[in-house]
Amino acid sequence: MTGGRESAADEWVDDHAGPVVRPYAVTGGRARPVTGTFDLISLVTATRADTGAESGLGPEHLAIVALCQRIQSVAEIAAHLDLPVGTVRVLLGDLVARSLVEVREPRATSAGLPDESVFEAVINGLRAL
Amino acid sequence: MDYGRSERPAGAAPLPTAIKILVAGGFGVGKTTLVGAVSETRPLRTEEVLTETGVGIDDLSGVEGKSTTTVAMDFGRITISDDLVVYLFGTPGQDRFWFVWDELALGAIGAVVLADTRRLADCFPSIDYFEGRGTPFVVAVNCFEGARNYRLDEVQAALDLDPGVPVVLCDARERESAKEVLVTLLEHAMKLREARRRAAED
Ligand SMILES: Nc1nc2c(ncn2[C@@H]2O[C@H](COP(=O)(O)OP(=O)(O)O)[C@@H](O)[C@H]2O)c(=O)[nH]1
Ligand SMILES: [Mg+2]
Questions:
Q1: Which of A48, B114, B128, B174 is the most buried (most CB within 10 A)?
Q2: pLDDT computed for residue A108 by the predictor
């Protein structure tokens, strides 16, 4: 279990209900983010040190803002919070709507592949590992 | 598209570019091992919830009545520089997880298909998928017992691969070997990109 999750939302989760119910509780039943699409490798960074007096946020929202003091991908956030990616997308939508996080979607080019300089940088970077 | 950009303090460094590479192949072929061998931390795990209708949860009313299942993906990260990060995703190799594949393959710059010579057929679905999508891929024959008894051109023929698709031998447990596989993939993807660009010009 990840720390900081043993509150609010978990209390009304039925232990026997199976793996889908906790995510359902975390998002209040919402399946889609209010804004954004969020690729697995979209990078997320918090715009503030904490959420301040924002109301209507749950412990998972706060956990994301805390985690994203350092840049994280959507996949990393999901892994660290031990929540399905779909659930994390909904939470991120809430945070974007409040301007609490900034998101960078992966760069897509018309050809679907990044330019040569990116390839060369990755190749050189790998060789230097 | 970027979101919330206006909130970013003036003068803050731009967020890095993230690159996605897939590691595919049958169960137990060494996907997680390879991801772990080159990543800067041990592999992380995320889950997607699948419903009868596919990925994501469209309507959770009456959750009990729906068959849901989760697909786990292992992934790792390689920070190349302050402005470039590579994510490697080990993708579940079964046909019934197409939904996850589609999401993963979107925007991926290429894929490593891991093969085990004792059960080569396990990587057919992965190869078919990437060929169909036009995703650049290489085949890496993982060094399980007996792998060295095969010549790489025999593997290439057995898999009915395009002659241009690189086939290499690897040991997914070894960092150097895993790195070499990724470099081979990137060089191949770069070549394909160039060829496609030329073809588009003609
Ligand atoms: N002999 C040998 N064993 C390997 C190699 N790569 C992976 N393994 C082992 O094969 C097993 C399955 O590997 P894993 O990475 O979990 O496979 P996955 O299901 O594709 O993610 C593990 O016990 C690994 O230690 C290899 O190159 N050589
Ligand atoms: Mg695995």
A1: B114
A2: 58
Phi, psi of B43 (to 5 degrees): -60, 140
What are the backbone angles phi and psi of residue B18, rounded to the nearest 5°?
A: -110, 135
Of B6, B7, B81, the CB nearest to A125: B81
The pLDDT of residue A5 is: 41
Q: Is residue A74 part of a domain?
A: yes
Instruction: Compute the distance between CA of residue B40 and CA of residue B27 in angstroms, rounded to an integer.
Output: 23
Asked whether residue A12 is assigned to any structural domain, the reply reads no
The CATH number linked to B36 is 3.40.50.300
What is the band of B145 on the pLDDT scale with cuts at 50, 70, 90?
A: confident
The CATH number for A77's domain is 1.10.10
Tokens standing for residue B173: 């447990």
Q: Are B91 and B24 in contact (CB under 8 A)?
A: yes
Put simply, the answer to whether A31 touches B109 (Cβ < 8 Å) is: no
Residue B148 lies in a domain: yes
Q: Do B57 and A23 touch (CB under 8 A)?
A: yes
CB of A125 less than 8 A from some CB of B: yes
Into how many domains does chain B fold?
A: 1
Answer whether B142 contacts ligand 1 (Cβ < 6 A): yes
Residue A3 lies in a domain: no
Q: Alpha carbon B103 to chain centroid distance? A: 11
ipTM: 0.83
CB nearest to B4's CB, from A21, A43, A47? A47
Q: Is A102 within a domain?
A: yes
If you measure CA to CA, which chain A residue comes closest to B192?
A113
Provide the domain limits for residue B101. 13-45+72-197
Residue nearest to atom 18 of ligand 1 (CA): B28
Task: State the pLDDT at residue B58.
Answer: 45
> Rounded mean pLDDT of chain A?
81
Torsion sign (Cα): A58, A62, A67, A70: positive
Confidence of residue A28 (pLDDT cuts 50, 70, 90): confident
Say which residues have a Cβ less than 8 Å from residue B167's Cβ, sequence separation at least 6.
Answer: B138, B139, B140, B141, B152, B153, B155, B156, B159, B161
